[in-house]
């Protein structure tokens, strides 16, 4: 027998059309490959405090039909992983963030009740303006990261979100994080609010200002925020240089 010839049983399973296979047959088929993306954005609470939010999509087919899930979908046969993440993100939420980071691979054999499913997870950051521009409907909605809805997501998507939060909170030293959540110009109060939302705790304003001066990655501009009743606060910008450690070229993975 040729060493390259697969066992007859596996050949038969691979030849079964996915739509016609029963649950037992699909569980023995080769793993399917998919991508899922956790997108973080900042939204103010009713009290004005900044908070991390993320969009979810409602599944319209089995398994887990009707449950909320992360945006994602299958990887095309000739598609890079990053391209698949960008495509599925745009098609489900309309979002096209300039920044995506590959997060982790989730491939527990029992994470899907049907065919084994291996998911490459990404996470992205979008500005408050992008969050506000998202079109929401009954199948696409934004949720705060502490919303109880997140406790009952499809597959292991709650675990993926927790991992993304852990990764984000371990990257707060990178000025790019706040820059991507706030945009080109921001006040120190807005910047501190973003860090407090990411870390889940309040920060002392004076200590925060001293830490920023030490990093030299956030610099003052000659512009001020207009529209307030009091003395307008100065606007700052991110002034980092060199390779962005969070940048991913989605066309070359």
Give the overall shape, derived from the CA principal axes.
elongated
Distance between the termini: 37 Å
The amount of beta strand, in percent, is 15-25%
Radius of gyration: 22 Å
Structural class estimated from helices and strands: alpha+beta
Give the overall average pLDDT: 82
Main beta-sheet annotation = 7 strands, mixed
Number of helices: 8
**Total number of β-strand segments?**
9
Q: Please write the string of helix (H) and strand (E) elements.
A: HHEEEEHEEHEHHHHEE
- Percent of residues in helices comes to 25-40%
User: Runs with pLDDT <50, length 5+?
Assistant: 1-18, 242-253
In words, what does this structure look like?
- The chain has 253 residues and is of the alpha+beta class.
- 30% of the residues lie in helices and 24% in strands.
- It starts with 7 loop residues before the first helix and ends in a 15-residue tail after the last strand.
Short descriptors:
single chain; 253 residues; two-stranded antiparallel ribbon; elongated; alpha+beta
Write the layout of secondary structure elements.
Blueprint lengths: L7 H7 L8 H5 L4 E13 L5 E9 L9 E2 L2 E3 L6 H13 L6 E7 L10 E9 L2 H6 L6 E5 L12 H13 L5 H8 L5 H12 L5 H11 L2 E7 L9 E5 L15
Parallel strand pairs: 1-6
Antiparallel strand pairs: 1-2, 1-4, 2-3, 2-7, 5-6, 8-9
């Amino acid at each position: 027998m040729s060493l390259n010839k697969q066992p007859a049983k596996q050949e038969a399973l691979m030849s079964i059309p996915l739509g016609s296979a029963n649950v037992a047959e699909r569980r023995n088929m080769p793993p399917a490959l998919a991508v899922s993306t956790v997108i973080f954005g900042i939204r103010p609470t009713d009290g004005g405090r900044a908070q991390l939010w993320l969009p979810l999509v409602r599944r319209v087919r089995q398994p887990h039909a009707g449950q909320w899930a992360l945006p994602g979908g299958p990887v095309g046969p000739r598609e890079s992983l990053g391209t698949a993440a960008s495509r599925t993100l745009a098609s489900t939420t309309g979002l096209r963030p300039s920044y995506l980071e590959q997060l982790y691979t989730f491939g527990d054999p029992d994470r899907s009740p049907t065919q084994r499913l291996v998911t490459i997870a990404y996470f992205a950051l979008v500005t408050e303006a992008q969050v506000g521009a998202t079109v929401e409907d009954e199948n696409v909605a934004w949720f705060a990261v502490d919303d109880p809805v997140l406790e009952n997501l499809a597959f292991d998507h709650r675990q993926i979100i927790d991992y993304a939060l852990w990764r984000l909170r371990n990257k707060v030293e990178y000025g790019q994080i706040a820059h991507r959540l706030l945009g080109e110009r921001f006040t120190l109060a807005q910047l501190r609010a973003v860090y407090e939302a990411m870390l889940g705790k309040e920060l002392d304003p004076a200590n925060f200002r001293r830490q920023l001066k030490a990093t030299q990655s956030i610099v003052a501009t000659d512009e001020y925020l207009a529209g307030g009743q009091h003395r307008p606060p100065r606007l700052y910008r991110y002034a980092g240089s060199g390779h962005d450690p969070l940048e991913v070229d989605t066309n070359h993975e």
